[in-house]
Specification:
single chain; alpha/beta; D-Maltodextrin-Binding Protein, domain 2; 2 domains; five-stranded mixed sheet; four-stranded mixed sheet; 18 helices; 46% helix; Probable sugar-binding periplasmic protein
């Protein structure tokens, strides 16, 4: 049960509050007390309930408490929600029953389309001017955050890179493979996977359960189509029937044949642990995986290597955790205060130092960050940027759900490449 948040309006009587709540329908399931907003508190909903994500959130809260000591932070997320998918379902039920948190985290980009359409979140474009973000954020990022009518509905706390190959140098050296090499093509990468398998490595490429398998598909499509045609899959300028898509899906099936048989039982971090422990040589995952290596005190460049995913050098596959402001909240001042901290230089530095991502702001000192993060800052500034499909930047949730279902069917043997390609094409048709 969530604790009741009392209003600061001294003139409001208990009877009047009851009438307002009854009219607004803000009661929660199971007889829980209603959630009231006030100037004195800000209710923030995230799926960051454990590990490095929770520590990053705690660091951000620490900055908020210094910048806005008059406002109390309330962690309004689903504790023990079992990951972002469960939390998103819980959040959706709250939005539909008019019990919104003041702000909630979501992936920047197309993932927000349904929230915008259903009027669950507000246009925060004015805050970009108020907080000086039009100068602090790069133009390319601002363009990706903006809707067709020029409005912006969220403020990013970070930038993640999705297209990364993580490698165990010791395993590679023991099997005659150069540990620092970048792969120009998937064919070259597959040749080394075959070499490792012949040497007795049962799962040269580790992967986790459903969404990491979609993530692997994403980087495979990017490798074989290139950034322009890859982006065309999501804006309609590249046909799913394109022969390059067929090649990518064939490559994807080959890559999956080198992965661990227990993949459907493993979370993404367990797949990272296989590389750390030497059970696998490679894992394709975003830079949030950095936390798994740091937790084990592994040294960058010595205990592990991280380079662009095979065939994607020169491309930055983008996603961002961002905060929205809900519609229908009783007071917006505390929500704006939280968004100010999220966008501030101090907030972005504190959060990203822990999270492994990089700030959205361009006016931070790269020297404050890890060696990997320095390379990511440089890459984001000079490489071709594309949007991640797996992580909400490229397509709305409904299309991602259809893509995910197609991946599950293919990896379980229910469909062949032709059927897989047809199902992916159908996902774009609604």
């Amino acid at each position: 049960m969530r604790s009741m948040r009392k209003t600061t309006a001294v003139a409001a009587s208990a009877a009047l509050i009851s009438l307002v709540l009854a009219a607004c329908g803000t009661g929660t399931a199971g007889g829980a007390e209603p959630s009231l907003r006030s100037h004195e508190r800000v209710a923030v909903y995230t799926w960051w309930a454990a590990g490095v994500e929770k520590r990053g959130l705690d660091a951000l809260v620490g900055v908020f408490e210094k910048q806005h000591p008059e406002i109390q932070f309330v962690n309004d997320g689903l504790m023990g929600g079992g990951g972002s998918s469960t939390s998103k379902e819980h959040l959706q039920s709250r939005l539909e029953t008019q019990d919104p948190p003041d702000v909630f985290v979501a992936h920047a980009g197309a993932e927000l389309q349904d929230y915008i359409k259903d009027k669950h979140i507000q246009d925060v474009s004015g805050l970009y001017q108020e907080f000086g973000l039009t100068e602090a954020f790069p133009k390319d990022l601002l363009d990706r955050l903006s809707t067709k009518d020029g409005k912006i509905y969220s403020i990013p706390s970070n930038i993640h890179r999705a297209n990364l190959l993580w490698a165990n140098p010791r395993v590679l050296e023991q099997n005659g493979i150069e540990p620092s090499a970048e792969y120009d093509s998937l064919d070259a990468f597959i040749a080394d996977l075959e070499k490792l398998k012949n040497a007795g490595i049962k799962a040269p490429l580790s992967v986790g359960t459903t969404w990491p398998q979609v993530h692997l598909l994403e980087t495979t499509l990017l490798a074989d189509l290139g950034p322009e045609a890859y982006s065309g899959l999501w804006n309609g300028s590249t046909a799913w029937s394109d022969s390059r898509v067929t090649t990518a899906l064939e490559h994807y099936g080959t890559l999956m044949s080198y992965t661990n048989p227990d993949r459907d039982e493993l979370e993404w971090d367990a797949a990272s642990a296989m590389v750390i422990g030497g059970e696998s040589a490679f894992n394709i995952m975003g830079d949030w995986a950095l936390a798994a290596y740091d937790t084990e005190d592994k040294a960058y460049g010595t205990d592990y290597r991280v380079v662009p995913a095979p065939g994607t050098s020169g491309t930055f596959d983008f996603l961002a955790d961002s905060f929205t402001m809900s519609s229908g909240i009783l007071d917006e001042d505390s929500a704006k205060a939280w968004l100010e901290t999220v966008s501030s230089k101090e907030g972005q530095v504190a959060f990203n130092k822990i999270k492994g991502s990089i700030p959205a702001r361009t006016d931070v000192d790269p020297g404050q960050f890890t060696e990997y993060q320095k390379t990511a800052i440089q890459s984001f500034g000079q490489d071709t940027i594309v949007s991640s499909v797996t992580h909400g930047a490229a397509v709305p949730i409904s299309q991602l759900d259809a893509i995910t279902a197609a991946v599950v069917a293919f990896n379980s043997g229910e469909t062949d490449v032709a059927g897989f390609q047809a199902a992916l094409g159908a996902s774009a048709e609604g």
